[in-house]
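ok, trying the design again with the full structure, not the truncated one.
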């Protein structure tokens, strides 16, 4: 899995002023000041459509900006279409997004710097970035906590697993996935659902 190098660009704002002068005409009265309410979009959300049902994730781009930006780029690129939940451990986690329906690893364009020290913890219903034992190896694979998993949080002695959002709808679907029978399959020695659970697609929720 690979490091994410995120380049943030700033957009310059240009203010154009038009001045019209007419010596023979009186100056116009100043226009009345009107205050317009500005609608602020909420946190980004995505819908995960699976063969077992759909659920919605709300992403915390304030606490995990690098992870959220990378995840949404994968979403927009269609990375998760026709992938599987390849790892299900009852009362622990469900994990997916990195293997296709033949259980072959999908190439991932980038990896993400570990943001596990962001103050978000691995409690039930949160979504985190999966990785290997190398702290900054997370790429497109994600997991959802079926229980409070404090052992995944960072400590002064080690890196943790970065939480970057939470389930806001469809936790019952996730619990059903978490309860399926599992066993070995292909290169995986255990924890693979005996009946394949596919991620048909992940798409953004339109903000009002």
């Amino acid at each position: 899995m690979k490091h994410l190098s995120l380049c943030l660009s700033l957009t310059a704002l240009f203010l154009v002023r038009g001045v019209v002068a007419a010596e023979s005409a009186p100056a116009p009265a100043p226009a009345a000041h009107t205050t317009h309410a500005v609608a602020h979009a909420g946190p980004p959300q995505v819908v995960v459509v699976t063969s077992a049902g759909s659920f919605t994730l709300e992403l915390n781009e304030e606490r995990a900006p690098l992870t959220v930006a990378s995840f949404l780029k994968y979403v927009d690129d269609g990375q998760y279409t026709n992938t599987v939940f390849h790892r299900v451990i009852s009362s622990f986690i469900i994990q997916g997004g990195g293997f296709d329906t033949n259980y072959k690893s999908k190439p991932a364009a980038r990896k993400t710097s570990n943001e596990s020290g962001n103050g978000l913890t691995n409690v039930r219903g949160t979504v985190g970035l999966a990785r290997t034992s190398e702290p900054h190896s997370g790429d497109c694979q994600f997991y959802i906590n079926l229980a409070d998993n404090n052992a995944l949080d960072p400590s002064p002695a080690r890196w943790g697993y970065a939480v970057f959002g939470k389930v806001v709808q469809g936790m019952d679907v996730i619990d059903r996935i978490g309860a399926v029978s599992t066993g070995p399959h292909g290169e995986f020695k255990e924890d693979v659902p005996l009946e394949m659970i596919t991620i048909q697609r992940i798409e953004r929720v339109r903000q009002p």
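Keeping the full-length input from now on. Residues 42 and 96 are 26 Å apart (CA to CA).
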